[in-house]
Amino acid sequence: VFLQHAATGLQHKHPLVRHYACRMIATLRLPDGVTLLAGVLKKDPEPSVRRAAIKGLVRYGSDPVITAPLIEAVGDKDLSVSVCAHEALETLTGKKGLVRRVEEWRKAAAR
Question: What angle do CA 67, 40, 45 make, to 5 degrees?
Fold first, then answer.
């Protein structure tokens, strides 16, 4: 029930509502939340909402289902989102010192 409410919040016109919906989903840590947050990270037009999705995904752990959308977010057109994704990957994987590029993270994930 809570996930349904949060999912509805992800469609709201106001970015702050979408941001808090991401936080709610992350707090619940239900399996469907990963798919929802990954979708937000890929499609939401607001950088602050995409950053909230990244922070939410981190709460789910370091499974490849979670790191894959984070790797793609390293290539985000918004620098703050790119840096947030890069730092999240460093935290989840323990891999430090990589260049903030999608290709570098893809190589690192394949090892």
Answer: 125
Which alpha helices (H) appear in the chain, and where do they start and end?
A: 2-9, 15-28, 31-43, 47-58, 64-73, 79-93, 102-110
- Nearest by Cα to 11 from 36, 30, 34: 36
Q: Report residue 79 as tokens.
A: 């620098």
Mean pLDDT over each residue of the chain, to the nearest integer: 94
Please name which of 27, 33, 34, 45 lies closest in space to residue 4, comparing C-alpha atoms: 33
pTM: 0.94
Residue whose entry in the numeric block shows the structure tokens 């999912």: 7
State both tokens at 46: 């607001």
- How far from the centroid of its chain's Cα atoms is residue 65's Cα? 11
- Per-residue pLDDT of 8-50, as tens digits, reads 999 999 999 999 999 999 998 877 899 999 999 999 999 999 9
Q: Classify 35 as helix, strand or coil.
A: helix
- Tokens 């937000």 found at: 40
